[in-house]
Amino acid sequence: MSVQLKEGIYWVGAIDWKLRNFHGFITPRGGTYNAYLIIDEKVTLIDSTKPEFGPELLRRIREIIDPSEIDYVICNHAEIDHSGSIPSVMAVAPKAKIITSTKGKAILERHHKQTWEYELVRTNDELSIGKRTLKFATIPMVHWPDSMVTYAIEDKILFSNDAFGQQIATWERFADEMSMDIVMEENQRYYANIVMPFANPVKNALKLVGGLECEMIAPAHGVIFRTPEHIAAVLESYRKWSNHEADNRAVIVYDTMWQSTTKMAEAIQAACEQLNISYTIHNLSEDNLSLVTHEMMVSKYVFVGSPVLNNGLMPQVAAFLHYMKGFAPKKKVGMAFGSYGWSAQSAKIINSTFEKLCWDILPSIEIDYFPDTEELEAMTATVIKNLQADPEQFAHANPGECELL
Ligand code: FEO
Q: What is the whole-number distance in angstroms between the Cα of residue 79 and the centre of ligand 1?
């Protein structure tokens, strides 16, 4: 069933209960592709769904109106999860015109190879659809170069597309209908895996959104925020994350060959407990790196451990570093650790990623073969000492040498 947001404005999207992997982003709660229908003198559809959900979208539209009456299809973002069923809509909406950005049109043409009528919009352009006026703003790189938002001026609804989204398959359409803890956890997981690389574009988008009076933020994924408290909470989260503000907590990630690096991870765990630093600990051969990423994002301290394997790292640790580097997280303190046999190499490789990210770097600890109890206790004591020390005394990458500022 469609769901009414305000008089004449409906959610008509699709719920993807089976989604577990969104281009590498693990989605244990499934996902949603939100589309919105506005009934006015000009019937307007905002965004669509993945292609396979076209019938679901059209079924919800038909509960309200014959799709042939659609005048405008607004494409805020042409990635296939939002534009995939535009061809299904256009096939039954012969008078419809697509409203999008210049870059959106270019991507739609590459994706769909169709000749549609377009009207291109830029920031501050307005479109009258009857008693309502829609205003547009581009927010490039939140999430693709074409990304934009649509603001319904009279209704004070921001259709924010990927921004402020969460991947949750739920029948509830509004954040206040479900646990806000779950909503914010998924909001954080979504930001960490999709939005994190684009901190500066997010700051620009927040400046723009901050100037709008919003009674609802209606993203293209997940639930809609409609209480002042929830709108303030999601905006504050984006402010914090885009400024790379982390909590005084730690994430310990590692893989192990013969449990030596596991024991070293547990020695760091003991240090965190003695200092009352909240932490999570993850063996990457068991925990998916996408699920670990949001812990990394909110943690000030990132401990990464690997034994040496064939002159390199364990594959899952290398994958984690590669995945993490792509997000360019900043303002963190890193520490490498791991066991080795005849040639200590893993800390150097791990630290090279920290250096590229311009993090503060605590002294690494590497232990040959099997750590004994005394060595592990000494490791805990060293980590405590280093965490209590002034980080200025430890290694900093020269900002001029940082590759990922
Ligand atoms: Fe939800 Fe960038 O697509």
A: 5
